[in-house]
Amino acid sequence: MSTNLQPVQRDQRDISLDILRGFALAGVLLTFCITDVRSAPGYTKNFFDDLVDWPKWIFVESRMYTMLIIIFGIGFHVQLEKAKRKRVTFAPVFLRRAVGLVIIGFIHAIFLSTRDILMFYGIAGAILLLVRNAKNWHLWTLMGFIYFVAIPIIVRIQTGFQAFSLPQPNNYIDHVQHNWQYFKLYHQIYFIYAEMLLHFMFGYLLARTGIFHKIRDDKKLRQKLMLTALIGTVVMVPLYYFYFPKAVYPLLDNLKSAWVQQLAVTGVRMTWQLWIIVSVTLYATILISIHKSAKRRHWLTPLASFGQMSLSNYLMQSIVLVPYLLAFNKYDNMPPFKGFVLFVVMLTLQLAFSTWWMTRHIMGPFEWLLRSFTYWKWQPIKKYEQRLLEVIPVIAVETH
Length: 400
Hints:
single chain; 0% strand
């Protein structure tokens, strides 16, 4: 069987996935600028800080990483189906991609930012490869085992949470040393791998069962889901962020039976997971509906370009922001509102750059590097190079 599997061409891409990916990446950037950089110890938030911090916490925190992971699972299915149609081998190509993500992620985590997610992508993605041929009910059963059995056990025995208390220096040499210490501790928080695999599998099943395509193509279904998610949001926000902290969490601490406490904690976890899915569903249905509207589709063009080169934009955020934060002593010294301003500036620049870049190139620079490694040969990156490769076989046939 051939191993000549080539990347998806631009005109074959599902633009709705690029839009969703771009939206989620913007949320990741917002979380980094407001939460990860952090304000100075003892800093008292003002009105403007709360104005940006509360909505970020309620509507963005954790949702965007989950959305990116689910999209990764959907993309995995797209690649797998393409390989099946062409009757080519999929595993070696995807494994090289996973290895490439691990390598890039390691460099990113040590020399730039502790917020790296690429290594988790590579490792959890390689595990997903092992179960790609399992039946749907097997996958749902495995997801249930991971969520209800594996994660609670892992949480009880894992270490590494000291990573979050490490002081963040503001000079580069100490920053690299901090990143190395953080890396060693952070990757001992094993439930992150389990949760990521869980959401990879969920995205894979959404695509494999055709649910995502139905949501994308069926306007009535999409509207029903949007309304349901909106109602769910109205219910979940006061329930999870106001009622639970006042009534439920204190009750958990007072439960004497370990089994009852475990059941109660599981209920809280399930509520959180439901809230995550409700949020992602609401955002996805709104964005897809805008994309499907002929009058409003152009609104999302910059976001689609931003999402298409998401790997490059994710890494360039660190390449630009980390030196800035170190040079101006901003780590652990950035109030939320100033972080929000930084987010707006950075996102605006990246949207403009992505739109400009994608009019001239097939993919982003780091996508090109990863694809060249994945397919084991240099890929064309400029549009005229791709057109030339498409024309040459035609010329060859005509000359014979």
